[in-house]
Amino acid sequence: MSSLSGLCVCFFVFLSVFFLMIRLPPSSTPLYSSAASDVYKRQMPYVNVPNDLSKIKTKMAFNLTKRQLVCFGSAGAVGIPAYLLTRGTLGNTGAMFLMLGIMLPAFLLAMYEKDGLPFEKVVRNIIRAKFLRPGIRAYRTENIYAPFAGPGAGKEDVIEKHKEEKRSRRQG
Predict the structure, then answer these.
(1) pTM for this one?
(2) How far apart, in whole angstroms, are the C-alpha atoms of residue 118 and residue 104?
């Protein structure tokens, strides 16, 4: 019984010293009336909150988003059977490279993001800007009241008349 009480006393002393070491400020600063000790006393745990809350994405499992889970799962569902079926004919190295070639596009779709847009939307915007829409868009207006105003009442005609008046004033 005495060994158990001795063990309890040792454990109590250990916990007391341990908790005292946690609560006391560092020994390099005086206990009271020091700016460093005041800062130490005012420290509180905090959590970093990003300024832009639109960048926060909900995580599903393994700290991955739903999109990443679907892409990684589909890559594994296609790549692993491809490796297992082709390693007999291509060998381990060839089958591994084939598996990587099959799985890398899915990894790219899962991980690539630019300005908050996923990979396929970035590619779609590039194709639209480069190929589908005209490169130079001329500024043209269409006056829907021109048929009612008569000939020579369009914006371009008024500008041209104004330029001719300026020229005639300079010359004359």
Answers:
(1) 0.47
(2) 16
